[in-house]
Amino acid sequence: MYDVIIIGAGVSGAAIARELSRYELNICVLERDEDVCCGTSKANSGIVHAGYDAASGTLMASLNVRGNELMEQLAQDLDFPFRRTGSLVICRSPEDMPRLEELKARGIRNGVKDLSILNRKELTEMEPNISDDAVAALYAPSAGIVCPFGLNIALAENAAANGVEFCFDTEVTGITRADGGWLVVSKQGNFRTKIVVNAAGVYADRFHNMVSKNKIHITPRKGEYCLLDRSAGAHVRHTIFTLPGKLGKGILVTPTIHGNLLIGPTASDIGDREGTDTTCAGMEQIMKNANLNVKNIPMNKVITSFAGLRAHEDGHEFIIGEPEDAKGFIDCAGIESPGLTACPAIGEMAAGIICGRLHPAQKTDFIAERKGFLNPQTLTSEERNRLIRRYPAYGNIICRCEMISEGEIIDAIRRSPGARSLDGVKRRVRAGMGRCQSGFCMPGVMKILSRELGIPRTEITKSGGNSRIISGLNKETGYPAGGDRP
User: Fold this and answer.
1) How far is CA 307 from CA 248, 352, 355, in A?
2) d(CA 121, CA 127)
3) For the chain, what is the mean pLDDT?
4) pLDDT digits over 175-191, tens only?
5) Is 238 a catalytic residue?
6) How many angstroms separate the CA atoms of 186 and 131, rounded?
7) Is the separation of the CB atoms in 188 and 173 below 8 Å?
8) Crossing angle, helix 11-20 and helix 148-161, to 10 degrees?
9) What's the pLDDT band for 486 if we cut at 50, 70, 90?
10) Residues 132-158: what's their mean pLDDT?
11) How many CA atoms lie within 13 A of 283 on its CB side?
12) What pLDDT score does 419 carry?
C-alpha cells in the first residue's frame, strides 16, 4: 500500500514527487515509457514565461507567475541551467498597438513585474535582426530559458534521492476504488494506494473519466520545431514572440540554454495522441512565419526537427484538484503552455492538497539540493587534467560535436533514475545533440550502455520499446551482422 501513486513522470509528475518527498510518505511514480521526460515535457520551447499571456484570474496565470518566481532558486538548488534572457512580443502594425497595450495590462493584473513597451529604436538596439516591419514590442525581462530535460531530470533525481520510487515501462490501464483507497491496474501488475495523482499529459482525461462522472476532454495539439546549429545561436538574444492568436503565441524564435537557435512551434489539433511526426507543411509554416518577426534567419543551419503534443483541455485551463465524486484522486490535467514554467508551483499546489488529506510529518533529513552532471569543458585546463588523471574516462571523448566524454555518459547511466537508452543519455548529457545528430557517437554510446547495463548491443534502443538500433551481431567479430564495424 502506497500513500501516493503519481501517474506520469513528466515535469508535473516529477515536480509533485519532489515536493511530496519532503514528507514521511511512501510514494511511487508510474511511467509507461522507459524514462522520465518522454512525453510533452521533452518536446517544447524551453521557455520560462513571464505570465502576461494567460487570462487573469485563472490557475494558468497565477501558477505561471509563481513558477517563474520559484525557478531561479530551484535551478540553484538542483543545479540545472536556467537564464533570464527576457522576451519580446512583436507588434508589426500601428493598428495592433491596443492589443499590445492590453497584453501589458493583463500582465500587470497577473502580477508580472517590470513590463514595458519599446518603440522601434529601442527594439532594434536590443535585437538588430528584428523584422523591418516591427513597430513596437512588449518587453518582459523576467522571462527566461531553461533546458526542459535538465529541469525534469533534476526534479526526478532529487525525488529519488529522497525515497520516491520510479517504475518505468509500467502502463496504467485502469483505476478503481478499493479498501478506502485506489487499485491502480497496470500491464506490469496492480498497485494499491491511498491517493492517486493524475499527471498523465495527453492521457489525463482518460484516467479522470475512469473515476468521475464529470467528464473532461483533452485534445492533442501538435507543435513542430526546427533546431539550428550553435553557430546560429546568437541570431537573437531574447525570446521573440508574435502577438498571441487563437492557438497561442505563434512561431517563436529563441536562443536555447545550450546556445542553439530554436524556431516553432506550429499548432494543429489532431486525434492521434502519439502523433509526433514532423511534416513538410509544418516545416514550411515555421520557415514562413518565423521570418515575419526576425529577418535573415540562417535556415541552412537547421540540424534537426521534432514535434511534441500539448494537452489542450477544452476550457483552456489547468485542472488541479479532486473531482467532487472522486476524493483522493488528484487531477493534474490540461497542463499545456505555460506548464513547464508553472511546474514548481503545480508541485506546491498538488502537494498541499495531498498533505491536507494525509497530514504527513515533515522529514528531518530531506535532501534539498542535487548536484548536476559534471561537464569537464567548464573546468580550467589544470582542473580538467587533474580530473582525467584520476578518472581517465573523462578524457575519452565519445561525442565530438558536443565534446561529451565517456565519464559523462557513465554518470548519466549510473544515476537514479538513470539513462537506459540512447535518448536517455542524450537528454542528460547531450551526446548526440550536435550537428551530426549521433552519426558519429552512436556506436560508442551503445557500447557504453551495453557494458554498464549488462545487456547485449542488440537490446540497446533509441528510446525504449521496440526502437532497437541493430537486429543481430556476428558471433565471431561482435559487430553487427553484414558489416565490419558497429
Assistant:
1) 16, 33, 36
2) 10
3) 95
4) 999 988 999 999 999 99
5) no
6) 52
7) no
8) 30
9) very low
10) 97
11) 14
12) 98
What is the three-state SS of the chain?
CEEEEEECCCHHHHHHHHHHCCECCCEEEECCCCCCCCCHHHCCCCEECCCCCCCCCCHHHHHHHHHHHHHHHHHHHHCCCEECCCEEEEECCHHHHHHHHHHHHHHHHHCCCCCEEEEHHHHHHHCCCECCCCCEEEEECCCEEECHHHHHHHHHHHHHHCCCEEECCCCEEEEEEECCEEEEEECCEEEEEEEEEECCHHHHHHHHHHHCCCCCCEEEEEEEEEEECHHHCCCCCCEEEECCECCECCCEEEECCCCCEEEECCCEECCCCCCCCCCHHHHHHHHHHHHHHECCCCHHHEEEEEEEEEEEECCCCCEEECCCCCCCEEEEECCCCCHHHHHHHHHHHHHHHHHHHHCCCECCCCCCCCCCCCCHHHCCHHHHHHHHHHCHHHHCEEECCCCEEHHHHHHHHHCCCCCCCHHHHHHHHCCCCCCCCCCCCHHHHHHHHHHHHCCCHHHCECCCCCCECCCCECCCCCCECCCCCC
**Cell triple for 277:** 511526426
Cell 508541485 belongs to: 347
Whether the bond between 338 and the residue before it is cis, its omega within 30 degrees of 0, is yes
Cell of 75: 535551478
Around Cβ 303, how many Cβ atoms within 10 Å? 17
The pairing of beta strand 218-228 with beta strand 261-264: antiparallel
* Closest CA relative to residue 315, chosen from 173, 214, 212, 210: 214
Which residue among the candidates 49, 208, 238, 312 is catalytic per the annotation?
49
Cβ–Cβ under 8 Å, residues 18 and 162: yes
Q: What is the pLDDT of residue 432?
A: 96
For residue 380, count CB atoms less than 10 angstroms from its CB and return exposed for 0-12, middle for 13-18, buried for 19 or more: exposed
Burial 174-192 (b: 16+ CB within 10 A, else e): ebeeeeebbebbbeeeebe
Q: Measured between alpha carbons, how far is 17 from 11 in angstroms, rounded to an integer?
A: 10
pLDDT level of residue 469 (50, 70, 90 thresholds): very high
Q: Which three cell numbers stand for residue 120?
A: 522601434
Amino acid occupying residue 327: K
Phi, psi of 6 (to 5 degrees): -110, 125
Residue appearing with cell numbers 497496470? 186
pTM above 0.85, yes or no: yes
Look at the alpha carbons of 210, 211, 214, 220 in this order and tell me if their dihedral is positive or negative.
Answer: negative
